[in-house]
Design brief:
This protein is mostly helical. Helix content is 65%, strand content 4%. The mean pLDDT is 87.
Length: 480
Amino acid sequence: MFKGIFHRGRFLLPLFVLSGILFSGAIRYPFFQDDFFALQTSRVYTPNDVFRLIGIQDGTVYWRPIGIQLYFALLQAINIGSPLGFHLAAFFFHLINIYLIFKLTKLIYPKTSVSRLTAFFYAISPLHYFALGWAINFSYVIVVTLALLVFIFAISNRLILSWTFLVLALAANELAISVPILLVLILVKLNGKQFLSQKRLLKFTAAVFAVTVGYLIWRFSQGIRAENDYIISLIAPILSMRWYGLWMIGLSDIIRDQMTSIFTFQTLFTMSFPWVVFVYTFQIGVMLLVMSGMAIEAVRSKRWLTERLFQIGWIVIGLSPVLFFPVHLYSHYAILASIALYWAISQFLVELKTPYNLRIRQIMTGLWLLVAVVTLRLNYLASWMSDHARHSQLFQGELLRQYKQVDSSATIYIITNSTKAPLVLAKGYSLNYLYGVSPEKVHYTKSAKAYLFPIGNIDSDITEQEARELLAINGVIFDL
């Protein structure tokens, strides 16, 4: 037992450290945008507030009490109010996920080399960037934890625990609606009748689907907003699958706006980041060769055909909750689906019949690491999230420079020409976080006169300075 723990630790601990180094930039991001909303709306003052957090929050399009509301409430209740604390909590669960990926893979594919490669590909995948760098996206970390526990406990014949974690996963993130079908795929692959009686297997499957169908009926009865970024299209899977495929092999979200074809990029992007274009082009070429090798094996062998169908099915089902969004596409949505791709690549590399097998695996892991470094470097330099994080840090610093403390009952006037300030500061919610001011008492305006005379009927006798003095009588003015 202890020998097994030692051998796993000898592999996993360096992997944990490597993952921490790669994502250290994201872990240092400040709060921005929706973080401030969740911080304010998830505070618990009375026992009734706990029940309020379990319900659908006003102004949101999701129901994620475990992934957002209760998580934010718990960390604030134990005085972890800093963004670093939130990011470290998310990263802790990311490390748990790496271990669970290793364990689940070992249950499905007994060869240790497959488990290690899969855990490696998952651990440093840039897919985690948005989940680890934006506190509000913790739900995309914890839903993986809970889903993996569903699978592991089901295979271990601990069905009540498996069902319980499914319920928790559904309350963490909508991606969990794919978990029952993924579980069926695993049970079919492993021939669940070998470790479950037919009666127990049927009862368990019925209970799993019953709770999921119940969740979907209730969720749709509460209303689903399918507009703006959330519009739904039946042809979206054809268009979006290519992006999810590129993101799962390590490319940045940024390429969605920069690629003109599978091997060509926009001219300005190529001139600005030639090193990215070179590495990405090479990675795409290598992955196409690997996919071709998998396809040839599937044609030649029934065993490999079965394996590939299982893995392709997992990828499609894992993406099914988001495949019909043609606009609202982000790489971290592929986090569950990506596991099967990493299984496929790992299994192919380990069982590749060549005297250079070990050398090929070393080259592939080196390339994967290089792509991860390049993508995360690009994200830190040019992604919209890094831009919003930088502006949030800048604006918060400037607000605190002007006033260290503000009366919580004061009205706040923020005079700014920046259209980004209200966005990254979540309007008044950031001021609630910094000063305890009610969000409804925070107003953004381009000038004091524009606030006093919003419809353009500006009194020519009043100057901007006089307008500011009038606002300052019953409020506090910030300049951004």
